[in-house]
């Protein structure tokens, strides 16, 4: 069982001015890998608040998925907050999301999403739109359980026969 926290980063969403469709969608997409959503919050695009929540959830869950705040707008600070929290970057996750996303839209190149590890928790930044969340999460979904096992200390061989 993979325990999960989902953080939606949206100024409008945090004020109740926009319905969050991406956060609940993440929870649905994770069901096939046996993920258990423990925490779900909508926060404004405030870097220090995002960092604080990431740190809080790192001691409580195996996986944190953020949605929103990964673009080029001045208030898009999710990757910046994540980079200040993680101990190790897992660049391949973000690289493949951008690469595969580029096949659908050239705008995928504008994503600043990052992924990394803090302690025993994997943190992955996803875009804000439900369509992009679905597309990106489906690209990486099958590697999440393996990544979480390794982060928790699994020492079995990774090579496939």
Describe the structure.
The protein is α/β, with parallel strands linked by helices. It has one domain: Molybdenum Cofactor Biosythetic Enzyme, Chain A, CATH 3.40.980.10. The protein is 40% helix and 21% strand. The chain has seven helices and six strands, in the order βααβαβαβαββαα. It has a six-stranded mixed sheet, with helices on both faces. A hairpin with a 2-residue loop joins strand 5 and strand 6. Helix 2 packs parallel to helix 6 and helix 3 packs across helix 4. The radius of gyration is 15 Å and the shape is globular.
What is the topological layout?
Layout: E1 2-9, H1 11-14, H2 22-30, E2 35-43, H3 47-58, E3 63-67, H4 78-85, E4 88-89, H5 91-102, E5 115-118, E6 121-126, H6 130-140, H7 144-151
Parallel strand pairs: 1-2, 1-3, 3-6
Antiparallel strand pairs: 4-5, 5-6
Helix pairs in contact: 2-6, 3-4, 5-6
CATH topology: Molybdenum Cofactor Biosythetic Enzyme, Chain A
Outline type: globular
Strand arrangement, major sheet = 2-1-3-6-5-4
Q: CATH H-level name... which superfamily?
A: MoaB/Mog-like domain
Structural class: alpha/beta
Give the N-to-C terminal Cα separation. 25 Å
How much of the sequence lies in strands comes to 15-25%
Which CATH class is shown?
Answer: Alpha Beta
What CATH architecture would you give? 3-Layer(aba) Sandwich
Note the run of SSEs as H and E: EHHEHEHEHEEHH
Radius of gyration: 15 Å
- Uncertain segments are none
Mean pLDDT reading: 96
| Major β-sheet annotation | 6 strands, mixed
**Oligomer description:** single chain
- How many distinct domains? 1
Q: How many beta strands in the DSSP annotation?
A: 6
Alpha plus pi helix count: 7
Range of helix content: 25-40%
